[in-house]
Amino acid sequence: MDVEPINIERAMAQVDLEQLRSRGSVKWSATNDSQLGAFIAESDLPLAPSIQQALADAIGRGLTGYLPTPVARDTAAACATFQRRRFGWTLDPAYIELLPDVLGAFAFTLGQLVAPGTPVVLPTPAYMPFLELPGAVGHELRTLPMDLVDGRFVIDPQRLAAALDGGGLLVLINPHNPTGQVATREELLAIADVVERTGSTVFADEIHSPWSIRAASMSPTRRWTNAPPRTP
Ligand SMILES: Cc1ncc(COP(=O)(O)O)c(C=O)c1O
């Protein structure tokens, strides 16, 4: 399906404060009227017409049960097309599995894709739940404070190698929350080098990639590594 590019200003002109408050979303209802739950990453933009239409069609057909295999297959193919068109990354849809959300994927990774107790290395500052989940399911958390160098938050490869010594799971968030920073190709290659040398695994959270203002500069981590993807 061809989708029109978003014009943010036009989209924002369709919503006003009154509507946002009456929508009742968590961000707008978690606090009192003089405050805003700005820490909650819910979009204020109206849902894209094509998404509204697809949801209405599915509900109209009574498609409210389990995920049918052909729908999962089409979604995986659409995801691969999006990655190729937006980021120039060609990936086989057969490697794409659908999961309900990022934290569910992270919990699945800790439970199924790495050895029990594998240490989790998390560059900080970080999106809060990544600090809590590993310990809750029996994994040691090793935080790795990033360095602020010339206005950029950078991961020091030497300290990363020390944290991943013996193998670990690196949580790599790109574009990064909360700094908003997009990793460069060189930074990703330096990280990939350490990951390979230490026999580690990467959990790449690229949830914010479609929002990257300079989308062309956003490089999905897997594009720069040669190892085959790990599947369950
Ligand atoms: C970097 C990052 N990952 C994950 C999430 C949450 O993802 P989900 O709700 O799909 O688990 C957020 C939400 O703010 C986020 O900023």
Automatic annotation (TrEMBL):
EC number: 4.4.1.13
Domain Aminotransferase class I/classII large: 47-209
Region forming the signal peptide: none
Keyword Translocase listed: no
Xref: Gene3D superfamilies: Aspartate Aminotransferase, domain 1, Type I PLP-dependent aspartate aminotransferase-like (Major domain)
Keyword check for Transferase: yes
Keywords: Aminotransferase, Lyase, Pyridoxal phosphate, Transferase
Matching InterPro entries: Aminotransferase_I/II_large (IPR004839), Class-II_PLP-Dep_Aminotrans (IPR051798), PyrdxlP-dep_Trfase (IPR015424), PyrdxlP-dep_Trfase_major (IPR015421), PyrdxlP-dep_Trfase_small (IPR015422)
Highest taxon, organism lineage: Bacteria
GO terms assigned for molecular function: transaminase activity
UniProt name for this protein: cysteine-S-conjugate beta-lyase
